[in-house]
Design a protein that fits this description.
The radius of gyration is 21 Å and the shape is elongated. The protein is mainly α and 130 residues long. It starts with a helix and ends with a helix. It has helices at residues 4-30, 34-62, 69-96, 125-128.
Length: 130
């Protein structure tokens, strides 16, 4: 069905796509700053998904059943991911300038932080002086 060099190209695209997606996922989990968190999945994962779709395109053409759907998905992905990342970062910048602090969560709930208990929950600077 497929021949030597195309098999190597498909395998390489899959491995590269998997590595980029893994790096983007790890970056999303490990990076602390919200803007850095945004950068990891929008750049690395976009390239990862693009490489995996490229492998699908190569396989389809090697199998004598060409499909242009993947090419359209790649084009849509590369056009929309930077724009959505820009909008998310713009919202983050505007929310940083917000004057009202977040309300305290209920006693049995915590905000989306790495804290396990209420004692571990970081307090707001205004509350530290009280």
């Amino acid at each position: 069905m497929t021949h030597g060099y195309i098999d190597i190209a498909i395998a390489a695209a899959l491995v590269i796509g998997g590595l980029f997606t893994l790096v983007g996922s790890v970056g999303l989990l490990k990076l602390r700053a919200p803007m850095a968190r945004l950068h990891a999945p929008t750049k690395a994962s976009t390239l990862g998904v693009g490489s995996i779709l490229l492998a699908s395109v190569l396989f389809a053409f090697a199998s004598d059943a060409p499909s242009y759907h993947e090419l359209l998905i790649i084009a849509f992905l590369f056009m929309t991911a930077p724009v959505s990342a820009y909008f998310i970062s713009k919202v983050h910048i505007h929310l940083q300038n917000q004057r009202d602090p977040l309300p305290k969560p209920a006693r049995d709930r915590i905000w989306a932080t790495m804290a396990k208990r209420e004692e571990d929950t970081p307090s707001l600077p205004e509350e530290q002086g009280k």
